[in-house]
């Protein structure tokens, strides 16, 4: 127990040494707090409330980010949209991690035809532009947020299969695994207690990066009209709406765009920081 | 005996194995696309008639299903699609009334041109900024370069495109994509104007990872012994920079460019939509909303073939730039 504490503390220590990691963590904290506020409804206005008298008003004390073509508060919609994007991405990446890591570890450990099937399948999915695949899947599944999350999950599962499978192939040949097998430990025990820890570091980094890609995919789908449906707020949908408005109401485009960028930058920085903290070679440099 | 061993060597030679793996990947994709589009509710009829499907009698629906060929078993549908794909017709698009081949003939050059412009711009910008950054690690110029890399990675193509269209139309009253698309062989100047901005948007998306890879690859190579030797024996610094350091950093850069090509094809879907370019991305998007199986499947297969081809090309380029790879 104590040893574990030390390792965790050590990891945090290394993480805090990277500037990008710290900035990323601050941005991430901000996103989570803002999304929680949106989830509890602590926003200055209801994101769905329309107000005919206050259509396309610029940023002001009452409407911090201005209003859109229906007089809805862009500040509230931006934060609500960010909450929705984050929720969908977290659900999608969780599914992808769970399924991908399980399949990857099993494939790498069991080998033979199962491994061949898994790698071929993930190669096939990998050979696709992500957004195109998500588009095809979501158009068949439907437009609810679960469908969007599911299609993004399918797209990103192969990445986790690949990331998990590699270290397993190396670990499998290690003496301590062979010894465990000779000692007669059950396969599940070897997989969970001895193999899984080898995979955690690359997976954690991959989760952070995949989250940022998932956010981009989700907003891209919404932008094309295949993700979140109006009147619900979504960052991608807001940018799509702004296409015809931005010429005379810059705030309709500027704020949603800014927040997509902040979210993706934050997650990327966290990913970079984690990679630096977990990679022993980089640690010492 | 000798014939057998020679045959065996031929069958297990890297080239043949490579071709086999490419074909099996493509086969996997074709099944995957087919299944994804069928398993899920809704079909060509609900896709093209919408709510009006409810007005149709069960008899009419059955007739339509027969007409579109979707009352057959899945295996038969797959085989008939494969047959028409391999025969080169690629299937039939019901909403436009022509073969998918005809649609693709006009759409594919647009996307290929876009992808080429995007890749070239991306590689040039990415390597330039990567070298600029790596020259003095930790300096202000390094910070600026890395900031570019981060922002280019984080700003989605549709945001950048929307901003460019808005600014160009609003401030300069410039609408390069307001008119119909012009192929380069008909009107090169108009074509250039229409392709410039979408190409740039894709180029920036490619440039970000290329820049990051270039930077880290250069920094790794700079410390190698042969670089010190080159400096020591008095090779001109500029020559060391290009002939020794950059050349030896090219492998990861080429890999990254190959990977990015796939994302670029995906980005083309969105960029073509915003800039009103009649390419493959738009073709897929239209077909998806109309649930035209044949068009979606065949278009996606063409995307997949392009992607796989690029992967093979990347491998060939490796061998060219690094003779050590066999």
Helix content of chain A: over 70%
Mean pLDDT of chain A: 83
Overall 3D form of chain A: elongated
Give the helices and strands of chain A as they follow along the chain: HHHHHHHHHHH
CATH fold-level topology of the largest domain in chain B? MetI-like fold
Task: Specify the structural class of chain B.
Answer: mainly alpha
Low-confidence stretches of chain B: none
Low-confidence parts of chain A lasting 5 or more residues at pLDDT below 50?
none
How much strand content do the residues of chain A show? under 5%
The largest interface is: A-B, 38 and 51 residues
What value does the Rg of chain B take, in angstroms?
A: 25 Å
- Termini separation of chain B comes to 27 Å
CATH homologous superfamily grouping of chain A = MetI-like
Number of domains of chain B: 2
Tertiary shape of chain B: flat
List the helices and strands of chain B in order.
HHHHHEEHHHHHHHH
């Amino acid at each position: 127990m104590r040893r574990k504490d030390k390792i965790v503390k050590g990891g945090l220590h290394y993480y805090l040494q990277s500037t990008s990691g710290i900035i990323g963590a601050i941005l991430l904290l901000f996103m989570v707090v803002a999304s929680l506020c949106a989830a509890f409804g602590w926003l200055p206005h209801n994101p769905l409330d329309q107000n005919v008298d206050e259509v396309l008003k610029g940023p002001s004390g009452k409407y911090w980010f201005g209003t859109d073509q229906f007089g809805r508060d862009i500040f509230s919609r931006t934060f609500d949209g960010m909450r929705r994007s984050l929720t969908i991405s977290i659900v999608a990446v969780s599914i992808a991690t769970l399924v991908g890591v399980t399949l990857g570890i099993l494939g790498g450990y069991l080998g033979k035809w199962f491994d061949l099937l898994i790698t071929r399948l993930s190669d096939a999915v990998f050979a696709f532009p992500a957004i195109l695949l998500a588009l095809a899947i979501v158009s068949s599944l439907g437009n609810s947020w679960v469908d969007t999350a599911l299609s993004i999950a399918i797209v990103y599962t192969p990445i986790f299969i690949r990331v998990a499978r590699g270290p397993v192939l190396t670990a499998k040949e290690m003496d301590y695994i062979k010894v465990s097998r000779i000692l007669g430990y059950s396969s599940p025990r070897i997989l969970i207690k001895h193999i899984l820890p080898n995979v955690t570091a690359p997976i954690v980094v991959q989760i952070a990066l995949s989250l940022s890609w998932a956010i981009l995919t989700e907003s891209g789908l919404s932008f094309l009209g295949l993700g979140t449906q109006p009147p619900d707020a979504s960052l991608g949908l807001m940018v799509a709406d702004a296409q015809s408005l931005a010429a005379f109401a810059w705030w309709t485009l500027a704020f949603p765009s800014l927040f997509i960028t902040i979210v993706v930058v934050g997650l990327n920085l966290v990913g970079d920081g984690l990679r630096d903290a977990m990679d022993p070679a980089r640690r010492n440099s | 005996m000798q014939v057998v061993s020679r045959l065996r060597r031929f069958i297990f030679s890297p080239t043949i194995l490579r071709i086999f793996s490419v074909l099996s990947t493509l086969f996997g994709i074709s099944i995957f696309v087919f299944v994804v589009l069928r398993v899920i509710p809704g079909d060509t009829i609900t896709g093209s008639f919408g709510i009006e499907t409810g007005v149709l009698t069960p008899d009419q629906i059955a007739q339509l299903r027969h007409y579109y060929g979707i009352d057959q078993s899945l295996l038969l549908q797959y085989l008939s699609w494969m047959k028409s794909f391999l025969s080169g017709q690629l299937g039939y698009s019901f909403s436009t009334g022509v073969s998918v081949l005809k649609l693709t003939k006009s759409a594919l050059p647009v996307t290929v041109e876009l992808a080429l412009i995007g890749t070239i711009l991306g590689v040039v910008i990415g390597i330039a900024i990567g070298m600029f950054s790596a020259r003095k690690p930790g300096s202000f110029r390094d910070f600026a370069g890395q900031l570019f890399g981060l922002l280019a990675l984080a700003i989605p193509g549709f945001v950048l495109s929307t901003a460019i269209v808005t600014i160009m139309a609003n401030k300069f009253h410039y609408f390069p994509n307001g008119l119909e698309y012009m192929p380069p062989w008909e009107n090169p100047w108009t074509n250039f104007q229409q392709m410039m901005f979408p190409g740039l948007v894709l180029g920036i998306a490619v440039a970000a990872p290329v820049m990051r890879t270039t930077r880290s690859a250069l920094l790794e190579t700079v410390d190698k012994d042969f670089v010190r030797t080159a400096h020591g024996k008095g090779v001109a610094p500029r020559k060391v920079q290009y002939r020794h350091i950059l050349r030896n950093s090219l492998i990861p850069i080429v890999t990254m460019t190959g990977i990015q090509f796939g994302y670029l094809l995906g980005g083309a879907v969105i960029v073509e939509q915003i800039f009103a370019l009649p390419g493959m991305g738009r073709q897929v998007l239209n077909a998806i909303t109309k649930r035209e199986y044949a068009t979606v499947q065949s278009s996606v297969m063409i995307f997949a073939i392009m992607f796989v081809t690029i992967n093979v090309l990347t491998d060939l380029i490796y061998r060219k730039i690094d003779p050590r790879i066999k």
